[in-house]
Protein 1
Amino acid sequence: MRRILARLALASLMLTLCGCGTSPTPTIRVGVALYQQEDTFISTVAQSLQQRALEEEQARDVKINLSVADGRGSQTQQNEQVDRFLDQKYDVICVNIVDRTAAAVIIDKAQAAGVPVIFFNRQPVEEDLSRWDGAYYVGSPGAQAGELQGQIVLEAWQQDPAALDRSGDGVVQYVMLEGEAGHQDALLRTKYSVLALTEAGVPVEKLANDTADWQRGQAGIHMTQWLKEFGDQIEVVFANNDDMALGAIDACLAAELDPLPFVVGVDATPPALEAVEEGTLQGTVLNDAQGQAREMLDLACDLAEGTAPQVEGGHYVWLEYSAVTRKTLDAASAGAGNQSE
Ligand code: BGC
């Protein structure tokens, strides 16, 4: 009997030492459906999500299982991926919806499965998002990106009108490279960039506009054509994102245009920041991929842990844009230099 008791005591001591008796770390399973993984900005958001998941794991003492699916631009394919996440009982799904008018189907399925859904970057229409309390949107307000782009041009105009208005006719001649048709960021950035100039009383003339689907190659093709038509009459190039701005610069460099027109983009991708440093891109607007990833995972973990999150109108989390020019980059690096001294 004494030997049995001694063995039991030893077994319980071993359980305590190896921690086998404690409850396992809870796991939060998050399904992420991307509209198109090879999109430059979206791939940055996906990387930031992976990075942020590691940080949240530490902060919350949980395990986060992040599963990423690429919709490759097909709503049908994305719906199947969402169905799979719901069938497999993920705790939360994050959806970068392919077709932003198709959110109702996903919201209804998520509600039926009781799985909260966080849309990001591609904003569903308001009526759809308000169908269910468990539907959210994390993003940045496209109008603000447009305004900041316009202000970068406005500042250049105010400082040295002659440098911008090369024809000297008192009017800013511009071309507009638009993102995907129907995307809220394409619509809003296009409208508000120009409005920032006209509201400040700067006369403008649109020489051409076209959609280049957020892509550098397509933007290069449009710009090559416009250079043939308008040559150095093009004083400003507004591009709804950096990839398209870089495509316009490629075309100008290939045409050996000197000086280049005043080109502005949005996103602040690494190659765009290099172009700002080099002086080929005059400015961009930071689309905060890291902030969006942080807010999404924060919200996802809160929802999985059953905490009711306080967000705008019950559905929205907004992240601010900020302007980036050679001046702001120099100021930031001077600031960093001071801190390390
Ligand atoms: C970004 C683009 C990106 C698009 C994808 C926009 O907010 O600025 O670079 O292609 O989102 O939805």
Protein 2
Amino acid sequence: MPDRTRVRTRLKVIGLWVPGTGGPSCLPHQPIPAPPAPGLSRPDSTGTVYDRCPMLESVAHNRIAIIGTGFSGIAAAVRLGEAGETDFVLYERSGDVGGTWRDNTYPGCACDVPSHLYSFSFAPNPTWSRAFSPQPEIQRYLRGVAESYGVTPRVRFHHEIEDASWDDADRVWRLNTSRGERTADILVSAVGGLSAPSIPEIEGLGDFEGPAFHSAEWDHEADLEGKRVAVIGTGASAIQFVPELQPKVASIDLFQRTPPWIMPRRDRPVSKIERRLFRAFPVLQKAVRTAIYWGRELFVLPMLKPRIAGRTELIARKHLEHQVPDPELRAKLTPDYSIGCKRILLSNQYYRSLGEENVEVVTTGIREIRRDCVVTEDGVEHTADAIVFGTGFKVADMPVGHQIHGRGGVSLHETWAGSPTAHLGVTVGGFPNFFMLMGPNTGLGHTSVTIMIEAQVDYLVQALGHLRRDETSVMEPTPAAIRGWRSEIDRLSEGTVWTAGGCNSWYLDDNGKNSILWPSFATGYRHRLNRFRPEDFEFGPGRTARVAVDTSVSA
Ligand code: NAP
């Protein structure tokens, strides 16, 4: 829609934009209302938990089904609507949009990528309050985008996809949802990699009598004030919530397996004047975004060429020295692998909080958990009233891998045999008309994943353009395209800090291969997806008429 985009941009620039209405209610076959609100005039949504929409739920078959309503699902819906698709729905297991930003409500939860970049290029938000946004603000932003762009009415809330199987006879996706079976011609997985919390199987965990929960499922009912808290894990989430807990609790025993590399966090409030300027001159905010984009692209260089990482490591070492005067504690917190091998974390408070008297960093491994304590390998009992797991997510072995079945009933998990692979991170052989957003090898360690998501949804739209010529045709990547992509990933990963940095990270799968990260500049990935190459795909006849006949079910 080049004309509309141009008009929209002009209106934005001159500040004459009329916010969208929030879209039609409950009508799955209506186009997305245009134009949407620019600069998110109302990014702060109401906080409503959405009800079921009986009219929407009465439709059994849709051309496109999107699973998930986080950044990826919302972006896909917006772009599909703009491209003229009218028959698509989003399945959401919860009662709200937002994905991982809805679920992660732990104290101190915030983004470590600057807000101007960690947002959609098509929906700049001139009202970000800080350089790095806190979780509630990002969640409000996502709600605001979903509402302003008419995505929300297309969401089937409280519909968990339990299983999705390709029916080769009828050439359609059969979706078993928690509210009955639905079908779709095209399935888009937008579940993301950080949706399934991982809690380690520690002997005796079930015997623990106090509250025990994962950071992504924070138990806000649990009163931790004045309590002895065991925190397991020292990753991206823990370094944010530990400094928040430390002043409130009696003590923290922090169980660290591997210390992370931590850099200073250059956060600051965005001034009122800046916000006014961004609102009045959206082009200014765009320029800031572009500058951050290219600055962040440079961050990947030391990860691609670890031998030039000296300066980055020096900054991190100085940060540690400056914030942790105690040499014994500092030794515990000094990583023994190359910087960047695991995600580089940003914090100005974490190290300081570990130096407080009520915090003990425990580096001995955990043997078991008992009724009221965590027992380490040396037999020491660490008494605890509560346990918080900051132990990350099931990324390489995500549940969706077991739930989605392609030709012959084979699951993604079985197809991948321990090394998830998708052509360009998007399509999988044996899984016709199936598209992944933030699929294998599209994660990033250095910049905003929204860049990858937008490239992927544009690619999706191009791919669907090929299918649209014949309303019911089917496509899947050729074995040669998949092999080519896999070897490109392996070649690019070789010698990078992720494979040669001497750490054990969740970027590497069971076979020791990088199947999570795009091992290069985000710009390179965008270029790869710029043009859809039909020669990378096999096309075939589409859905049989049988499915099309029965398109409605009672609500
Ligand atoms: P994480 O960074 O993967 O950290 C998990 C931590 O748990 C690690 O310290 C890990 O130790 C430890 N752990 C795992 N299993 C353990 C076990 N059995 N015993 C002891 N320790 C164990 O997980 P996360 O903090 O939830 O973050 C996950 C991802 O979410 C991040 O990498 C990032 O992509 C994203 N995130 C982003 C932001 C942001 O600001 N954008 C904020 C939070 C999270 P090892 O290191 O030894 O494995």
Protein 3
Amino acid sequence: MTTTVPPLLEALAGRRPRRLPVWFMRQAGRSLPEYRAAREGLTMLESCLRPQVAAEITVQPVRRHRVDAAIFFSDIMVPLRLAGVAVEISPGIGPVFEKPVRSADDVRELVAHEPGDPQPVVEAVRLARAELDGVPSGDASWTPLIGFAGAPFTLAAYLVEGKPSRDHLAARALMHADPASWDALLGWCARVSGAFLRAQVEAGAAAVQLFDSWAGSLRRDDYVAHVAPYSKAALDAVSGVPKIHFGTGTGHLLPDVRDAGADAVGVDYRTPLDEANRLLGGATPLQGNVDPAMLAAGWDALSAHARDVVTRGYAAPGHVVNLGHGVPETTDPDVLTRLVELVHALPGSAKSAAEGAA
Ligand code: 1CP
């Protein structure tokens, strides 16, 4: 390992490496044929809990696309399963719980579960790290692995609804109907998510991302009072690595998302990065925000859009190029590889763009 810092870590520290770092949320899995081969005959959660399989799938997109980071192949439901909660990931649907958490008694029963043994996670991160330590990124000789967890609200939204939902009405009602149960539920989710993050960092993750995918469904006052403190508790469980905090539809919450304890804010595709930077006061590194729909819009439209994202991102102190949400399952992998090549060929900062044009 050299002392040169990989572009991802430079950008998350608010600096402008020569080459813009790029990775994609949900890059592991979904659209890759080698992913489907590695998972053959295994359920989603089985694949997550077999260290060799999880490590292999984690590294696949780095080998194929030359992205500047791996994201650990797992799921936000894994820490719940490790804690002994009856959850399955149904193909084509997502997480489904045997028993939704609806009443004060349900919450009491849930929070009696201790976070489980993270050994399969620790082992998988170690195996992935061993390979990534030899894969260059920019001028560095190694590629970082990003650990992640679901934010307490997003986990609670699944636990209370019992399955994916659009508006998270039952969860948002519980928040006000029974604030004491809400506090116990979110506090427990913060504890298991925090333990999951810590296990990944201790095994070698070089950065972490907290996914609050459904935070955008909240009013700002509810987010600040009933959600952000628990996200902060989950993020506070780790130290010594940069922390990215991402949500979708959070244009109205960006400073609050940052203030929950993030070093960088993930911006979904709805808010242009120059506007996000203005909302954040120009001091926070950003991650995002190519619209996933553009991956299927043809190369001319996609490349023009990606250039626009990069140009708007120059306003921020650091920029990690990513999508504004996950890779759709139907994405042509070659389009992702070409997008990585394009981003790597673009100037890393407004200054080098101006020098190039001069
Ligand atoms: O490539 C990667 O990003 C790493 C692996 C990863 C991550 C970071 C997976 C694999 N899931 C996640 C996070 C995750 N899981 C989130 C947060 C990010 C986001 O908003 O996209 C959420 C909300 C989930 C829950 C979940 N798990 C869903 C969404 C359901 C819904 O409500 O719409 C789904 C479909 C899953 C299953 C899943 N997780 C990961 C994969 C590859 C799959 C599909 C497996 C299959 O269908 O067989």
Protein 4
Amino acid sequence: MEDCIFCKIIKGEIPSKKVYEDDEILAFYDINPIAKVHVLVIPKMHIQSLLELKEENKDLLFHIFEKINEVSKIVGVDKTGFRVISNVGEDSGQAVKHLHFHILGGEKLPTR
Ligand code: 5GP
Ligand code: ZN
């Protein structure tokens, strides 16, 4: 996807502050954090949102959640707690059409 910001971050065309990277995924700090700790976890494969997931992506999805667990430890929110959010489509305000999971923590989060 040529004009996808996250694909550009994966290719290194846009710099990011990386937390974790392997062949399948990348975790990096959000440029405009809405909590003291705000990390994004994305697959390197361009998938638009959760709505596009297919059976063949099940290992990738499990890998993402395993690494969300690991990233929470790296950034030090595993003991205090955190929230995982994936925005999908118009009403959610999804701005970047590349599947991503927000990890929010480092402080008490609003309950709604
Ligand atoms: P969405 O609203 O699509 O769920 O979230 C997209 C997130 O990507 C936003 O929180 C926004 O701050 C973040 N973001 C957008 N562009 C960049 C960028 O170039 N670098 C980083 N690190 N985050 C970005
Ligand atoms: Zn992309």
